[in-house]
Design a protein that fits this description.
The structure holds two protein chains of two kinds. By secondary structure, chain A is α/β, with parallel strands linked by helices. Helices cover 29% and strands 15% of the residues of chain A. Chain B is an alpha+beta fold. The N and C termini of chain B lie far apart (37 Å). Chain B has a single domain, classed as Alpha-Beta Plaits (2-Layer Sandwich). Chain B has seven helices and seven strands, in the order E-H-E-E-H-E-E-H-H-H-H-E-H-E. In chain B, 46% of the residues are buried. In chain B, the strands form three sheets. A three-stranded mixed beta sheet of chain B has the order 6-1-7. In chain B, strands 2-3 form a two-stranded antiparallel ribbon. The chains are: A alpha/beta, B alpha+beta.
Chain lengths: 737, 186
């Protein structure tokens, strides 16, 4: 048989990418020799049903074959962070890492090894995060981090309110909604499920009234919204409280629904009416906080309460803030007040939007085993009290401080070395300048990477990793299906690149670990499908699945979260302690933690508009998802970079007050850092708010100015009561450069 | 028969998937040569802002003034489907003729790379895909289904005869082969 890599024939390979993105899209890769020469999308015969990929994977081949990809192992020859490296062999590289792991474990104990994992490769088998966890668990343990940067607030809120994270509806269900409120949600940019925007447009064309509430006039709002209501960041709960006030005082709420399915509404009502703290949460009260006119709040409350069904689409962005989980809890409470939970055309809220079919939370995975370092002490999983979780793990948004301060600062360990796979945290968690200090101080840092990212520049050892095009694997959609996808290997690994799993496999040998290896790729994938209790229910013909690259699950009607609990509550209690929707949570009350009230509340926070710091830094910073990258992945792809220059959104009022005009070079700064960027003067943002898309690579110059304008040079390394990273709670100032 | 585009401006989110898909299929490098471009319009005051995007491929005009302007006769209109093609071999190069085609075109469809004496390139409606019964790459890539392609008569029958959109002026002189659905403020 001839080698397809040497053939001139063009082969079509069915695959997906595995980025940490909002979609999961069938791709048909045109491959000639060992090069992807074109990308086509889904070829479902009904074009309306095609799961169409976005611009990011339209440029996939320019990512896979990018000239700046790391092609061989390297070791540092310059200063830490300088980015100077020397090519070495795999043999030397693995030798260095294995020796460091052994030496550190022997000298300081396994807890002094930090494993940094991430979501940069969302697939089952070659999943670096799980592979490295498995390896180090077998090796003797390590310290790692806790918390998901994207969704922790929404996860916490959904667990409190519903006891479940599967709070979504099939996207087609938006066609059943009379009113759709986009509360901070911008699927046009971050996709939020392949085809979501397509369904949202169809809902709009079907007559749904669409309202967008958020500080920016997003591309989604510009396409579908009848009304844009600009609001100050971090104050969503003030407006939501006032909406509840209007519903209660005008008797628009669904008391029967509340009586039947919820607990704690009376206590919530007392809070809203001011019986608890002497402050009625009137629209006028809210206006002074959130900047939305009282009459607008009243009108939206009436529209939402009276249009049945109505879908309040909360999400995760506004929850990445100093009291983020309160926003999702409040949204879910409004949904219960209007009887929209478990109903077609409604929405349970909670911000996660997933359904249990094809969801990445139900993904087949390499069994990582147990971490010997974490065998004693409180459980990491299952608790709502973040204080328990950070006894053994470091909160993800405190990684740098933990490296710098160690046990003295109250962190679980004194870190002597770190190994990073599938992440670029220097860029993607709060306070990049603190990360710069921490990584320069860290005695040894090994990084598995595809590019010389902001973080990889600080490595002592660089291990080159393959893309999803160079592997076969199973991928799962974010937030969910209903479908399953198979990645067929399109090309053989480029250069000397290896998958994270292969790297771990080679390391296992050097660490004298015998039971790491899983078996041959396709055999394991077959097993992973067969043994997954959800996937196996739907994917029954593995060969067809592999051949088609996708298995679509046929649904008679769209999945509705909590349909059973609402239609037959006797036999289907909610998974909460009370079996009901918990507007009041006794579990949260028992935590006795002021940041986590048992009912959802508006609370002032650090770096809000009333913080004394506001005088010095009078602009609130948003750091939303970019449309032309997946976080910091794809940053180097020129086809994508040229689509939209990296700019700061600023309102003309704020620009004029600083002598700034559109296109000016400006600096954005606060006590944590300073970035250099171009101004985009636009009326699409609320005055007093500026917006910087996350993911641009951190590039500090000699004077400390970040020339790459990474959003996290400005964000705070802190987390909310529910564990949300506070990416949208920062005050900044802007000046001409 | 005249082939043409349909563009529903109300569905366009400005995502640029069409532009990237065009570069991919036609292997056009990053840089100034863009066979598909997106125009951006922002009007009004916060919060009553109006935003619209407009696609700018080649509209394969019924009277292609670019062809008339070309001193080398490198641009031709194919009789059977009205597609306007450029022969890059015959093109003299941007500086040589002063980009007469680009100057003549009301829609800036003729595009040039950054290199000296760059040859003109532009949208060819993915004629190779059409020949295989596929839609152009931009149409296939549009995840909001704002684009369509077909014989102009059929597009008119299907979508009406709209020739107006934001950031677009119908040229009676060139007669662009496009049917449009215009976006208006809510």
């Amino acid at each position: 048989m001839s080698n397809p890599q040497e053939s001139n024939e063009v082969r079509i390979v069915r695959a997906t990418s595995a980025f940490d993105c909002g979609g999961r899209c069938p791709l048909r890769l045109h491959v000639k020799g060992n090069t992807i020469i074109r990308v086509e999308g889904d070829d479902h015969p009904d074009s309306n049903k095609q799961l169409r990929t976005c611009l990011r994977c339209r440029a996939y081949r320019k990512y896979v074959h990018h000239p700046e990809r790391l092609m061989y192992p390297q070791k540092r020859i310059g200063e830490k962070g300088e980015g100077k490296f020397q090519r070495i062999s795999w043999d030397e590289a693995l030798g260095i890492l294995a020796a460091k792991l052994k030496e550190t474990k022997d000298k300081y104990g396994p807890a002094s090894i930090l494993l940094m994992t991430g979501g940069a490769y969302l697939a089952s088998l070659h999943n670096g995060s799980l592979a490295a966890s498995r390896l180090l668990n077998q090796f003797g343990g390590y310290t790692t981090h806790y918390g998901n940067l994207s969704s922790e607030g929404a996860v916490w809120a959904s667990l409190v309110q519903y006891g479940s994270v599967m709070v979504g509806h099939g996207r087609e269900d938006m066609l059943n909604s009379k009113v759709i409120i986009l509360w901070g949600w911008d699927p046009a940019r971050m996709i939020s499920g392949t085809n979501t925007m397509h369904h949202l447009i169809k809902a709009k064309e079907n007559g749904a009234r669409v309202i967008s509430i958020e500080p920016r006039y997003t591309d989604t709002a510009a396409t579908v919204a009848d009304q844009w209501i600009p609001i100050y960041p971090g104050t969503d709960t003030a407006m939501m409280a006032a909406m509840a006030y209007v519903m209660i005082t005008e008797n628009l709420h669904d008391q029967d629904f509340l009586d039947k399915y919820t607990v704690g509404f009376d206590l919530f009502k007392d809070y809203i009416l001011g019986k608890e703290d002497g402050q009625a949460k009137t629209p006028e009260w809210a206006e002074a906080i959130c900047g939305v006119p009282a009459h607008t709040i009243t009108e939206v409350a009436r529209v939402y309460a009276t249009a049945k069904p109505a879908a309040l689409m909360d999400c995760q962005g506004p929850a990445r803030s100093a009291m983020g989980e309160q926003y999702n809890r409040f949204a879910a409470t409004l949904s219960a007040m209007t009887g929209n939970v478990g109903k077609e055309g409604g929405s349970a809220c909670g911000g996660l939007m997933g359904i249990p079919i094809g969801h990445m939370f139900r993904m087949s995975a390499i069994p990582p085993g147990k971490n010997p370092v974490e065998m004693t002490g409180p459980k990491i999983k299952g608790t709502l009290d973040i204080r328990d979780r950070v006894i053994k793990r470091i909160h993800i948004n405190k990684l740098w401080e933990a490296m710098l301060e160690g046990k003295q600062g109250g962190y679980p360990a004194d870190i002597q070395m770190a190994w990073s796979v599938c992440n670029n945290y220097l860029n993607q968690i709060g306070n990049s300048n603190k990360g710069d200090l921490a990584l320069k101080k860290l005695p040894f840092f090994a990084v598995n990477e595809l590019f010389l990212t902001a973080q990889a520049r600080y490595a002592d050892l660089l291990l080159p990793v393959t893309t999803a095009a160079e592997r076969s694997d199973l991928t799962y959609a974010w937030p969910s299906g209903p479908y399953y996808t198979y990645v067929n290997r399109a090309i053989e690994p480029l250069g000397e690149c290896k998958s994270d799993l292969e790297i771990c496999d080679m390391l296992a040998e050097r660490l004298d670990i015998e039971n790491f290896r899983l078996g041959a790729e396709e055999e394991i994938l077959k097993l992973m499908v067969a043994q997954n209790p959800v996937t196996s229910k739907y994917v029954t013909d593995f060969d067809k699945f592999k051949n088609d690259g996708i298995h679509r699950v046929k649904m008679d009607k769209p999945y509705i979260a909590f349909r059973k609990q609402i239609e037959d509550p006797e036999n289907n209690p909610f998974e909460t302690p009370s079996g009901k929707i918990e507007i009041y949570s006794q579990r949260v009350a028992d935590m006795n933690k002021p940041q986590c009230p048992p009912i959802p509340k508006y609370m002032p926070t650090f770096e809000d508009r009333n913080d004394p710091l506001f005088e010095k830094y009078p602009l609130q910073l948003l750091t939303p998802h970019p449309r032309n990258r997946v976080h910091s992945e794809l940053y180097k792809v020129e086809w994508l970079a040229e689509v939209e220059p990296h700019r700061l959104w600023i309102h003309p009022e704020d620009a004029e007050a600083r002598g700034v005009v559109d296109g000016d070079k400006i600096e954005v700064f606060n006590g944590r850092g300073r970035v250099s960027i171009t101004a985009f003067v636009t009326r699409r943002i609320k005055p007093g708010v500026v917006s910087l898309f996350e993911g641009a690579w951190y590039q500090p110059d000699k004077s400390g100015v970040d020339r790459g304008a990474c959003a996290n040079t400005l964000t705070k390394d802190a987390y909310s009561g529910g564990g949300a990273a506070v990416m949208n709670t920062s005050l900044v100032q802007v000046a001409r450069a | 028969m005249q082939m043409g585009f349909y563009f529903d401006q109300t569905r366009c989110t400005g995502c640029n998937a069409c532009r990237v898909a065009c570069k991919d299929w036609n292997d056009v490098p990053a840089g100034p040569e863009n066979w598909m471009r997106l125009g951006y319009l922002e009007q009004g005051e916060t919060p009553d802002v109006f935003v619209a995007y407009m696609v700018h491929p080649c509209f394969h005009c019924e009277s292609p003034v670019c062809a008339d302007a070309c001193p080398a006769n490198a641009i031709t209109k194919r009789p059977e489907d009205g597609l306007v093609f450029v022969d890059r071999e015959a093109c003299l190069g941007k500086e040589e003729c002063g980009a007469k085609c680009l100057k003549a075109c009301p829609y800036d469809a003729p595009q040039f790379g950054p290199e000296p004496q760059a040859k003109m390139g532009k949208c060819n409606l993915c004629h190779d895909r059409l020949a295989e019964g596929k839609v152009p790459s931009c149409v296939e890539s549009c995840y909001t289904r704002a684009l369509d392609v077909g014989p102009l008569d059929e597009l008119k029958a299907k979508y009406g005869g709209g020739t107006e959109a934001r950031l677009f002026k119908y040229s009676n002189r060139t007669k662009p082969a496009v049917i449009l659905k215009m976006k208006n403020p809510q």
